Amino acid sequence: MGKVVMYSAVSVDGFIADENDQPGPLFDWLTSGDVPLDESGALKVSQVSYDYTRAYWNEIGVTVAGRHVFDITDGWDGTPPAGIDHVVVVTHRPAPDGWDPEAPFHFVDGIEAAMAKAQELAGDRVVEVAAGDVGGQLLAAGLVDEVRMDVVPVVFGSGKRFFGSVAAQQLLEDPDVMMRGDRVIHLRYRVRRPS
């Protein structure tokens, strides 16, 4: 099995979106550089951010996201983001009416079932978990191996929290990656396991 990574861009005060689900400037770093991040050419980052982000994106086999993220992105129009092979959507509802059954999206009830499906699909590749409520639930359940944050220099004051509604303390190891790109700091922490 591949590792499970909780990931998102985040404000310095710990939010992945404002109260209205708007990311504001959290993704500006993806268009502030001169190195194309993908074939579209729309995403251009600094060389440091390219080296860090492209290597990570190449490892991802599956993304796990909640139904709320799926709904506000309109299911990425049936195409998983960043060239990822599959998306597992944690939801208590079926796929939307008219949804293409051939699209590589899997609608699963509950975090344990979602993780089992994601690991089956990913094989030895990374299972990426979108930060927020679902990511926080998976972290609290001990199902996350690593936390990655792209910290952007903005303060939201309130909004959607990176770790969702997690109320229990979670220990992480010291960051093993700290890289400064343009308008972003890339951090990576391993989740500390109980001894």
UniProtKB/TrEMBL annotation:
InterPro entries: DHFR-like_dom_sf, RibDG_C, Riboflavin_Biosynth_HTPR. GO terms for biological process: riboflavin biosynthetic process. It comes from the Bacteria. It holds the Pfam family RibD_C. Residues 3-173 form the Bacterial bifunctional deaminase-reductase C-terminal domain. One of its GO terms (molecular function) is 5-amino-6-(5-phosphoribosylamino)uracil reductase activity. Gene3D superfamilies: Dihydrofolate Reductase, subunit A (3.40.430.10). This is Dihydrofolate reductase.
